[in-house]
Amino acid sequence: xxxxxxxxxxxxxxxxxxxxxxxxxxxxxxxxxxxxxxxxxxxxxxxxxxxxxxxxxxxxxxxxxxxxxxxxxxxxxxxxxxxxxxxxxxxxxxxxxxxxxxxxxxxxxxxxxxxxxxxxxxxxxxxxxxxxxxxxxxxxxxxxxxxxxxxxxxxxxxxxxxxxxxxxxxxxxxxxxxxxxxxxxxxxxxxxxxxxxxxxxxxxxxxxxxxxxxxxxxxxx
Length: 221
Known about the structure:
By secondary structure, this protein is mainly alpha-helical. Helix content is 62%, strand content 5%.
C-alpha cells in the first residue's frame, strides 16, 4: 500500500499507479483497490482531499470500459466538452432570459414558437446566401477558358471562395445541430402563463396575462 506522500506525488501520474494496480487489472481488482484506498484517504477520516480526488478520478476512468479504452490508447482521460451541447445550453439560457426575465413572460408557448421560427428563418437565409455564393464561384470557374502559365490569381480566388463556402456550410451544420438541441432541452416543461407577473411599459401601461390594462404607474388593488 502506498504511503500518503507517495500517492500524493503520483496524483498527476498514471491512473493505474494511483490505484496501485496493473494495466491488465480486471474490474474487481480495480474496485477492490478503490475501496481500500478511498477508505484510507477519505477526508472525513482525516485524509488529504487532493489524494482522495486523485483516487476517485482514477476509479471513475478505469471502471468505465469506454473511458479506460480511450485512456489506454491515448493517455487522455479528461472529458472534453461537447461543443453542440455547450452551445445548445448557452442558447437555452439566452432564451430563458428572454422568456422569463426580459419582457416576454406571457404566452410562453407562442413566444417560444416565434423564437424558433425566427431562428430557423435566419439559418435558412444564411444557408441560401452561401449556396448562391457557391453557385457564382462555380459559374465563374466554368467561364475560364484559359489561364496564365504563372500567377493564375483568378483561379486561386475562386478556389478560396469555394473553401470559404465549405467552411460556412460546416458552421451552419453545427449551428443547426445546436439550434435543434436547444429546443429539445425545452421538452417536458409545462409553463403556467396565468402565474406570470404583470409587465410595466412606458406610459403607465401594465400588461396583464389577460390583456392590457391602463393603471397609471402601479397596481390597482
